[in-house]
Design a protein that fits this description.
about 270 residues, alpha/beta, Rossmann fold, seven-stranded mixed β-sheet, three-stranded antiparallel β-sheet, 10 strands, about 40% helix
Length: about 270
Amino acid sequence: MERFYDPQHNRLIYVDRNPTPDFWDERWLADGGLGAALARTAPTHVSRLNRRYVDPEAGPVLEGGCGTAKHLAAMVRDGYECVGIDNAEQTVAAVKEAAPELDVRLGDVRELDLPDASFAAYWSLGVIEHFPEGYEAIGREMARVLKPGGVLLLAFPRLSPLRRRRALSGAFPTWSGPGVPEGFYQFALDHERVAADFQTWGFRLEEVRPQGGLYGFGQESPRLGPAALKLSRYRGGFRLVRGARRLLSDALDRDAGHSILLVLRRA
């Protein structure tokens, strides 16, 4: 995957394949194991953060860009009333067949067919970065469908301090536009700029949580990258290795975290 630095917007542009609905269907349905995966869904990091930020009695939760609905399934099992929206038609149909108890709908996060002020919380996990025109339409729809005081949990790849230093040192070709390169896949965004934009659309920033430090370091380190990436993907049973992975990732989150979670409150 090729990357460019866009100094005008202070972001990285990733070039590979366009993230069309067909692309996501191909990616998510490749192994044919969606039903089994949903049946054994365990609590995820979304479950843990819900306990901190989202009151299940406050109202329904929306996940915009729910994909295979694994987080949605975990939230429902935790007692939340949830709706999932995605634009990948075959994936939505497969989720409906595999887990008909889940409320998953075909839709566009830029233009939601949902009433105003109807949700207490909105989860967006790795969505806003995939739109070459930017995320304004998505952000305004988030503000529209959230109740006053509702919480938005917004995660996306970021231009970490490590990536910014590499960009300024010339590690990536410069992109000066207009638009984005052919084969656009996603952005790694300046999270301060994202937070400022969402504040103009009626949100208040409450917390910033960098994450994926070990993975982000692995992507950017020419010498130690392969080992760091291998450790970041470890899912085996050795507690010592898992503990080392967690400690290293936590230590690297601030400077190298691949992504970031913004916790925002609707005014």
